[in-house]
Amino acid sequence: MTERQARAGRGGPPYGMLRHGLRAGVVDWVLARVPTPRRNPFALGYLAVVGATTTFAGLADPDLVRRLQEASSSDGHNLLQHPLRALLLSGFWVAGPDWVPYLWAFALTVAPLERRVGPAWAAAVFAAGHIGATLLSQGVVIVGVESGRLEPAAMDHLDIGVSYGVLASLGALAGLLRPGGRVVALGLAAALIAGQIAEDRDLVTGVGHPAALLAGVALWRWLRRRDGRRPSRTRLGLSVARPRTASAPAPAPRRAAVLDRL
């Protein structure tokens, strides 16, 4: 007897219906996680800006692009002279000519975080990682130059990109996952950061990337309160008071019934 016949004989769903339902469930699961303007206004809007600047950098005059990026850089000199401009504009460029890796980075970190905590909190996490890691890493550079351990030219190294915001989003998202997924996400992030530090051997990268990841981890407590997928206390039955129902009157004793018959 085939599996299809066995299911039909037991009164279960037909094999074709089961297979179709399983396939439809997988499709629904994928579609529910595809970024859309309604679900991910922050992630898609930010990607549009970064895509525009990357396209401009590839088509415009190289000297003009270099001047604009140097004016937007969050290096030590710009932070001391124009801190707001440097912190804001440095996150609107990508480090390099290729934009596609950042598309996947946003799709796997910023977008799922935004679906769970909303665009305002996703933007706050991204900004916290970008600003906090920038100030810390460039602060180390400034102190190193002032103490004579680094050359003054270190204050002018170009510092642009969205990696701090992406790593902060990944660290924050890990806190909303189940324990197994959390370990995997943080392990991958740690391996990625270690590989970048070993390859670049850059002080700013070595300080900024771990700081950005930890900035996202530090926000777990607040983000968990706003996670739309975490069960509430009422759904867990922790604060639900069941209404008391009137108890039915106790049946009369059998002895009284016997006396009534006499």
Compressed to H and E, one letter per element, the order equals: HHHHHHHHHHHHHH
Tell me the total number of β-strands.
Answer: 0
Topology-level CATH name of the largest domain: Rhomboid-like fold
Oligomer: single chain
Full CATH superfamily name of the largest domain = Rhomboid-like
Describe the structure.
- With 262 residues, this protein is mainly α.
- The chain folds into 2 domains: 1-32, no CATH class; 37-229, Rhomboid-like fold (Up-down Bundle).
- 69% of the residues lie in helices and 0% in strands.
- It is globular and about 60 Å long.
- Residues 232-248 and 254-262 have low confidence and may be disordered.
Structure summary:
With 262 residues, this protein is mainly α.
List keywords for this structure.
single chain, 262 residues, mainly alpha, Rhomboid-like fold, 2 domains, 69% helix, disordered C terminus
List the helices and strands and how they pair.
Layout (H helix, E strand, L loop, with lengths): L2 H7 L5 H17 L9 H19 L2 H11 L3 H6 L1 H7 L10 H18 L1 H28 L16 H12 L4 H22 L2 H16 L1 H5 L8 H4 L17 H8 L1
